[in-house]
Amino acid sequence: MDTIRILYVGRQYEIATGIETMLAEQVKGKGDPRRSLTITFKQITNQKAAMSLTRTEPPSIVLIELDGKRNSRLSFCQSLRKRLPNSTIFAVTDHALNTPFAFDAVVELPLCAETVTPLLLKGLQNSALNVMECGPVRLNVADRTVTTGNGNYHMTPKQCALLQLLMKNHRQIVRRADIMEAIWNTSYMEDTRTLDVHIRWLRERIEPDPSDPTYLRTIRGVGYRLILEHERDVEEGGE
User: Fold this and answer.
1) Residue 30's pLDDT is what?
2) Are 84 and 113 in contact, with CB atoms under 8 Å apart?
3) Contact 58, 2 (CB under 8 A)
């Protein structure tokens, strides 16, 4: 089952309810019996509480009420984008935007189904594009969740970025130096214990037996190779 988390940040209950209803109608219209889609919709009135929620239940779509003041909620939006770089962020307002923040789209008030529905549908489509699936592993980049044979888990931004990098380079050897550069933005290789900890975490989540890894293989002296098909080749030098 696919789950898309929606977070509404604002005090207007009727507006939040109206958007939730439109989203529910979009899901009903999918009509594909091979897949089911579940939406969890939460309204938070407090910015601090909303940021706290993104740590434990990172949303794929965020809708933020704005007032007519210059740079309304600018700092909050910037922090949110940094924490959720792959999420879709909408402004909800009845004023002209007066902020340099690059929202993905604007939901104009009062709500009009003819204009709002296409925006919501695009948000759902963007969320679907953030899903990577290979073998027994399903990664949702937007809300940083991974589903494996061992269960469903939330990840830190670094854990998610590491798994995404390995899945993008599926079946290819990814050098440790390239991982450190891509994920930790450093070429310093004297101490890679942080990488080792992240690799161990991934193995605990995706491997049938983390002590004897068969999906995420170590290539001695080089790096790692991720092979997630059920039929896996035996890699020379792997362990």
Assistant:
1) 56
2) no
3) no
User: Which parts of 110-220 are beta strand (E)?
Assistant: 131-134, 137-140, 145-148, 151-154, 173-175, 216-219
Strand ordering across the sheet containing 145-148: 131-134, 137-140, 145-148, 151-154
More confident residue, 229 or 174: 174
Angle between helices 13-28 and 113-129 (to 10 degrees): 60
The DSSP-derived string for 42-79 is EEE--HHHHHHHHHHS--SEEEEE--SSTTTTHHHHHH
Measured from the Cβ of residue 219, the count of other Cβ atoms closer than 10 Å reads 17
For the sheet with 216-219, list strands across it: 173-175, 223-226, 216-219
Closest to 61 measured CA to CA, from 112, 103, 114: 103
pLDDT at 236 over 60: no
Q: What is the mean pLDDT of the chain?
A: 88
This prediction's pTM: 0.73
Domains in the chain, start-ordered, CATH in brackets? 2-129 (3.40.50.2300), 132-226 (1.10.10.10)
Question: Between 238 and 171, where is the model more confident?
Answer: 171
The pLDDT value recorded for residue 36 is: 59
d(Cα 232, Cα 214) in Å, to the nearest integer? 8
Give, as one character, the DSSP assignment of residue 238.
B
- Quick: pLDDT tens for 32-61: 444 556 889 999 999 999 999 998 888 999
